[in-house]
Amino acid sequence: MSNSTAKVSPFTQTVVGAVKRLYPEALADKSFDNTGLLLEAPLRPGHLRNSALLTIDLTKAVADEAIARRDSIIIAYHPIIFRPLKSFTLANSQQNSLLRLAQEGISVYSPHTAVDAAPGGLNDWLADIITGQFYRSVPSVQPSPHDRSLITPIQQAPQGFEKAGYGRIVRFLSPQPLGLLVSRVTQGLGDLSGLSVAVPQSVPAGQKYNIQISSVGICAGSGGSMLNGLDVDLLFTGELSHHEALAAIEQGKCVITAFHSNTEREFLKSRMRPALINELEKMVEEKEINEMVDREKWGLVGGFDIAVSEADRDPYEIITSGQTGW
Questions:
Q1: Which of 92, 110, 169, 230 is the one with CA 20 to 30 A from 12?
Q2: Average pLDDT score over the chain
Q3: What SS3 class is residue 173?
Q4: Is 1 inside any structural domain?
Q5: 126-162 pLDDT tens trace
Q6: Any residues with CB less than 8 A from the CB of 183 and at least 6 apart, and which?
Q7: Within this chain, do residues 26 and 78 fall inside the same structural domain, yes or no?
Q8: CB 60: neighbour CB atoms within 10 A?
């Protein structure tokens, strides 16, 4: 920060550095995205813990959770600041949360599409789920052999991230039944109660499970613009518009959607949290070896905590006919 009287938590700086190493900002789609450090809050010595909270959406409930936990930083996958602001007011719920977080000294960082594009990132995780790779530790589950490619490769990606890009295409070496893929998705995304599935209207009832799928187009979140027109048998994404789904099944394709953020949230637990913990430890080890820097400078005295928000959830839930108690 340019103001010498204001300092940021060393732990916050260390966490931001670790996230950037895992998901470089250069991978983000800057044509529309707003990634990076969106709120740099001044340090309040002794007030906050060496802890970070991972979330998909930074809602009021998540802000309340971070304040109660006394986290130093929130890593919010979706940018809470997405368009230029002309003012900060308490009347706007999102701005209210940001003002409260700044008052507490809690910073906010968003990696968004950099996570989508990174090798081993969000879209590769979705590909692992639908191919069965995600379950390789379960002896009873046999992964489906396949080839995997990018829909939109990133040109001039940073060194070490040459295979980065947006969206994924999976091509199975032998066709897989749609029902098997649906089962993998419901379990891999956190045992969802249900999915939205669309198939060509010519398929009779009772035969949909066994529709043979040889290729899948994958995009986390809202995949319409990326998946439309793709030459694949199945589109797997968080959401498509009504007309996009109709167009897909009219072309003989199938569709699986899970609601926008349900294709993203479980990634925080299964991949991002352990990767961030490992990267933080690796950064400190490297500094200790190369520069003899102690853990105090990196804000890691007494250890640290990386948690996934318990308040964060998709705004939609599936309510079945006759369901009560909700």
A1: 92
A2: 91
A3: strand
A4: no
A5: 999 999 987 655 566 689 999 999 999 999 999 999 9
A6: none
A7: yes
A8: 13
**Residue 78 labeled ligand binder:** yes
Q: Which two tokens stand for residue 134?
A: 């995600």
- Report if residue 316 sits inside a domain: no
Instruction: Please list, in sequence order, all residues whose beta carbon lies within 8 angstroms of the beta carbon of residue 169, skipping any fewer than 6 positions away.
Output: 148, 149, 150, 151, 215, 216, 217, 218, 230, 232
Tell me, what's the pLDDT at 325? 82
Q: Pick from 120, 163, 134: which is nearest to 275 by CA?
A: 120
Known binder of ligand: residue 260? yes
41 and 94 together in one domain: yes
- Is 242 annotated as a binding-site member? no
49 lies in a domain?
yes
Provide φ and ψ at 280, rounded to 5°.
-65, -45
- Indicate whether 72 and 150 sit together in one domain: no
pLDDT, tens digit, 9 for 90 and up, residues 223-279: 999 999 899 999 999 999 999 999 999 999 999 999 999 999 999 999 999 999 999
Burial of 119 (0-12, 13-18, 19+ CB in 10 A): middle
Residue 323 domain-assigned (yes or no): no
- Please determine, for residue 292, whether its predicted confidence score (pLDDT) is greater than 60: no
235 vs 148: CA distance, rounded Å: 15
- Indicate the pairing of strand 146-153 with strand 107-110: unpaired
Are residues 299 and 245 located together in one domain of the fold?
no
Give tens-digit pLDDT for 73-95. Answer: 999 999 999 888 888 899 899 99
Please indicate, yes or no, whether residues 178 and 58 belong to a single structural domain of this protein: no
Q: Print the domain residue range for 219.
A: 116-262
CATH of the domain at 25: 3.40.1390.30
Count up the domains in the chain and report the number.
Answer: 2
Same domain, 99 and 185: no
